[in-house]
Amino acid sequence: MPQSPNVDPLAATETPRDLARLAELATEAGLPALARHASREIERLAEGRFYVACVGQFKRGKSTLINALVGQAILPAGVAPITSVVTVVRYGSQLRARVMLANHAWQPIAPDALAAYVSEEQNPDNTKQIEAIEVFLPAPLLEDGLCLVDTPGVGSVFAGATRATQDFVPHIDAALVVLGADPPIANEELALIVEVAAHLATLIFVLGKADRFSDAERNEAARFSERMLRERLGRPVEPLLHVSGLERLAGTGPERDWPRLVTSLSTLAREAGAGLVQSAETRAVKDISSQLQRALDERLSALQRPLEETERRLEGLRGAAADLDRALADLHYLLTAEEERITRHLTADRERFLASALQGAVHELTEGLTGSGSHRDRRLRQDTITLAQQIARGHLDRWLNAERATAETRYRAAARRFVDLANTFLARFEAAREFGIDRLPPPFDPEPGLRAPSRVFYTEHLALTASSWKTWLLHPVLSRRALRRAVLRDAGAYLEGLLTSNSARIQNDLIERVRESRQRLEAEIRNRLASTLAIAEEALARARIRHSAGAAAVSGEIEKLVTLRRAVENLTVRR
Predict the structure, then answer these.
(1) Which of 68, 228, 328, 453: CA 20 to 30 A from 2?
(2) What DSSP element (H or E) covers 269?
(3) Which residues of 132-212 form beta strands (DSSP E)?
(4) Range among 26-35, 134-143, 328-337 with highest mean pLDDT value
């Protein structure tokens, strides 16, 4: 891969020296994963590479967008949710790909076999234990050191996918944030963007899949997203760039803001690449130093505290974990019962909607048909179909908005019990910090609402119009009044079919969103709590091994850790 012409070699040598020292210290401390992290950072800094991560909600079209930017459909797109693997697309003289396995060895793979490693269907929950994936190809956009990173989407039903994206945040140098119009920006997306923005100054916002929406729909979604971003970030936000990766790959459709997106990334690589690399150097040293200090502190605390006390405290936490597991099982049934109540409410609401909406919709149709100037030509049929569809959509949209708000409120109330219980458990782990646990996850925020996106779409049931309209098409001798009566009768039946079938779609979509949101929340709570307990178990296991070697071994290990801790502090102070 070519060196970035913008990288200052004097600036690039100082930090790798510090990183090399951190790698040595991590190795001495028995932390091989951290040592490998430092070595990988040294390699990418020496090559002048910087990461522009494509982030956003699941199914926003991130993979397709990257494919379009490099001019080749190399990343799997449109497959089942991608698993918890981050894929880096970087420059290479020829197309090739490789995966890093659990033993931290790189293995070449065929580029067209990527789906076997990144799709949830072929690698569920990353059972193949892939640590990383890199794709090399000779794309002009990547020549100056820019690497595009395809991240698993936040909001995926698979908790590992969200976790993998959040874990990669510290390595990001700039972000290409991909938003959508349906639904517009979600709470999970906002949370990730706020986290990314705390580390980065360079964020490029795009509204993807622009080919799927009208100008009015895109503009409305863009205004809403821009307002939310300004409010949450507390700073001005550039207008969203409307793009379609799918159209650009196919070479069809309008370009919209595509040239501006390519220019922004090209300019970033040429003019800001050196600054981003230097920032990455500083951030890597700070991040690895902090991790190393925390690890050393954990080990020191575990060794200096009597082992019996540590085991007693951890045993109490194990008991708390068992209590929590039982409580979560009970709450599972309670929340499932709440789902059933929401389902019953939606069913009753739909019946009331149909009873009231149909009467008003037929009246609107009658008034609209009376004002129509069409008589015996085909326009009367088409105009009436279009009018029925418009009337139905108006009633359905109003009901959808009301029911969505009601379902959100009911779900939040039910989910609050889950969140409160989980935070009570995490609070009990605060005491674990006293024996060397310093990597506890943050408490859960109140559940913002339905996590799962809406997948509802209306059907127009045009097939239902084919037979019903024959009755009047085959009777040209009917009077104008008789013809309109026949049209109105058939149109009323068609309108009733539209309201009935599409209100069922709305009802089923909301029920499924509640169910999927509950599943995501449960999975996140269980995974985070399991991780918390594993951290505590790890600290105890290390302490037990040292204590079993005798007092002299413990004393020697403490002295070694103190020396390593001082070396890390000196390196940090010198910078």
Answers:
(1) 68
(2) helix 258-271
(3) 132-137, 146-150, 174-179, 203-207
(4) 134-143
Cβ contact 133:88 at 8 Å: yes
Specify which residues 179 forms β-bridges with: 207
b/e per residue 132-145 (b: at least 16 CB within 10 A):
bbbbbbebebbbbb
One-letter amino acid for residue 50 of the chain: F
Going by DSSP bridges, is the β-strand pair 241-242/203-207 parallel, antiparallel, or unpaired? parallel
pTM of the model: 0.60
Q: Token digits for 250? A: 């196919």
Q: 374 vs 50, 228, 356, 377, 421, CA distance in Å?
A: 64, 46, 29, 7, 65
Give the CATH number of domain 49-271. 3.40.50.300
Give CA–CA dist 106/562, Å, rounded: 35
Domain ranges for the chain? 49-271, 305-561
- Identify each DSSP E strand in 61-211 by its residue range: 87-91, 96-100, 106-109, 132-137, 146-150, 174-179, 203-207
Candidate ranges 165-174, 398-407, 458-467; pick with highest mean pLDDT: 398-407
Place of tokens 């974990």: 321
Q: 246: buried, middle or exposed (CB in 10 Å: 19+, 13-18, 0-12)?
A: buried
- pLDDT by residue (tens digit) across 206-262? 999 999 988 888 998 899 899 989 988 888 899 999 999 999 999 998 999 999 999
Q: For tokens 């009802």, what's the residue?
A: 507
Which one is predicted more confidently, 176 or 304? 176
Class of residue 560 by CB neighbours under 10 A (exposed 0-12, middle 13-18, buried 19+): middle
pLDDT digits (tens, 9 = 90+) for 150-161: 877 543 333 333
Q: Enter the tokens of residue 302.
A: 């575990």
Q: Which amino acid is at 439?
A: R
Sequence letter at residue 451: R
